[in-house]
Amino acid sequence: QAKGDGRGAFRFFEAGMNAKMQLRRGLEIHLRQALGRGEFAVHFQPLVELEAGEVSGFEALLRWDHPTRGQVPPDQFIPLAEELGLIGSIGAWVLREACAAAAAWPAPLSVAVNLSPVQFRNRQLVLDVVGALGASGLAPSRLELEITETAMLFDTDATLATLRQLKELGVRIAMDDFGTGYSSLSYLRKFPFDKIKIDRTFVRDLSVTEGSLAIIRAVTRLAADLGMVTTAEGVETHEQLATLRAQGCTQAQGYLFSQARPANEALGLVRSIGRSMKDVA
Ligand code: C2E
Ligand code: MG
Ligand code: MG
Ligand code: MG
C-alpha cells in the first residue's frame, strides 16, 4: 500500500513537471523571435525625490506582449532569456531604447536600466553601454545601471573590473533589491555604488514588522555615511511615504506615484506627480 502511495505521488510530480516544461517550451519558441517581431516594449516608472518632491528620473522596465498569452511578467521570461543566451541582445536593445527615450526628456531627468548578472560575464556589455549613449547622445551622468547582488556572486574580480569600466564612462551604478541576497554588506565595501535600492519587502512590512523600520533606518544611515543615496522600492501608501521621509530616505518608487508607463506618458507624470507632491508638502 505504501508503494502505491509513492507511485501516485511520483505520477503527480511527473505531471507537474510536464506542465512546467510545456509552459517553458511554449515561451521559449516565442522568446527567440520576440525581439525580431517587435513584441518587447520598455516602460518607465518614476523615481521621486523626497526632499524636493519632484520626479528626477525613471526606471526602465521591460514588457513582453506574447502573441497568445498577452503580457508575460519579466520575472518569468528574463531567467529564460538568460538560460537561452538571449539576454545579451535583449539587454542591448533595452539600453538603446531607454537611452533614446531619456535623451528626449529635459535634463537632468535620468533613466535607470536593469542589468542581468549574465550580461556581466560578457565583454560586450561595456560596448553596448557606450553604443547606447553614443547613438542617443544622452549624457552618461543621466544613465544609471542597476545590478542585483547575484551579479556580485560569481566571478567577483571580473564583475568588479566591469563595474569600474562602466563607472569610468560617467554612468551611475545602483545596487538593486538590497537586503534580499547573500552578504549584501560585504559588496558595499567592494565597490563604491552611487545608490542603494531598498527591496520592497522591507517597505511592504513597515507597518507589520517592527524590524523593517529598524532595517530601513539602518540602511539609510549606512548609505549616507558611505556617500550613497537610497531609493525605497514598492511604496504604495501615504503612510509608508511619510515613514520613509522621516527616516531620511532620498527617493521613493512605487504604485503610490505610478506603475511603469510607456515613454510618451513620462513627462505628463513628471508634471502630475510634481503637483500632487506640492499639495501634500
Ligand atoms: P526590479 O528591478 O526590482 O524592478 C521593480 C519591480 O517592482 C518592477 O516589477 C515594478 O513594476 C515593481 N513595482 C514597482 N512599484 C511597485 C509597488 O508599489 N508594488 C509592487 N507590488 N510592485 C512594484 P517588474 O516590472 O515586473 O520587473 C520585475 C523584475 O524584472 C525587475 O525587478 C528586474 O529585476 C527584472 N527586469 C525588468 N526589466 C528588466 C530588464 O530590462 N533587464 C533585466 N535584466 N531585468 C529586468
Ligand atoms: Mg531594478
Ligand atoms: Mg528592485
Ligand atoms: Mg525587485
Automatic annotation (TrEMBL):
<feature type="domain" description="EAL">
    <location>
        <begin position="24"/>
        <end position="274"/>
    </location>
</feature>
<protein>
    <recommendedName>
        <fullName>Diguanylate cyclase</fullName>
    </recommendedName>
</protein>
